[in-house]
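Comment on both lines for my students:
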Amino acid sequence: MDIKTAKKEEKKVEYLELIYDLIFVYVIGRNNSLLHQVTDGFVGGQVFIAYILCTLTVIQIWNFSTYYINMHGRNGLRDHVCLFINMFLLYFMGEGTRAHWDSHLLEYHIAWGLILVNLGMQYFLETRNRKSEPEVCAQTGRMGVVLMIEALIVFATYPIYTATGVSVAPLAILFGVAGTMLHGRKAKVILVDFTHLTERAMLYVVFTFGEMIIVLADYFEGGLSANTLYFALMSFLIVVGLFLSYGTVYDHLIDREMKSSGLVYMLIHIFLIFALSIITTSLEFMHNSEIRLFPKIIMLIASFLTYYVSLFLTLRFSKAKCRPKAGFVLSLAGTGVSFVALMLIFMRNNYVNIALSAVYVWGIFLLLHHFSKKTADHA
């Protein structure tokens, strides 16, 4: 398939996009609060599934909004009004995000569906501005159809659940993912400004780290005792190391001027952001004696590995001279295996396992930093 790239000026992140992202900080916090519902020493399976669905829903909404602004946004009145409407609706989704969500199911799905309708209508309205570009007009309209069909599935979720007790919300999310990927494959013109897209993804990651920083404050409770200082320092080093690793990849390795639809890049970031949210909760659990030891250690290990695997996968978008070599990959894999083994060996010692976590995080950062110095600076 012959794919053309649309010519347009470099797109800059507008201040209104940053304001829009702030509402997601609130919703991220609401999603994470689901994991505080502990039963028999750990998070119940139903609550954890609800957390996954709510997190994926919010990230998908953010992705849909980001892509529209990236490809068609003009920072005009219509864009502003539509963003503020979605911000307002996201408050209802945040309010409906709770362990006992049955009484808030209707408002949650109405708000979710209306957000999708709002975005779909923007795509349909945009086709009027693209009449002189038949291929662009067709693919713009197709994305509007995808959003409207997903909205219909979302609106149908409440009556179907009321009648049968079965939620089809996961089907809506999966349809959105499949429809978007199919739309991307059929697109004959690349409208995406990859530089803008990577910057928007980076900002969402930064806001997710913001939630982690807020959680970190709990480690400083207890004054100047040696125990408090130790755990506060280790947790602080973990957060800083995680952030520096992402910053190294984003600043020095990613080819932000690459011609790409960015679909895979954003899909990777869904898992990366999801992993960061789980790390945030894992750090809360580490110094909570009410949480059972084995599952919280497994949760911490899995979230770290998911974060770093996702971060490593973004390197497929790196500059030509910065592609990972076999030695670098083996070093990362060996560090990960050693981390998992040591964490399981010293599982019963919180002093050791939080120190191991900090060492692992900084070990990965140093590997990435050394790799970027050897490659990116000479690219």
Observations:
- The mean pLDDT is 87.
- Residues 134-164 form the longest helix (31 residues).
- Residues 88 and 327 are 49 Å apart (CA to CA).
- The radius of gyration is 22 Å.
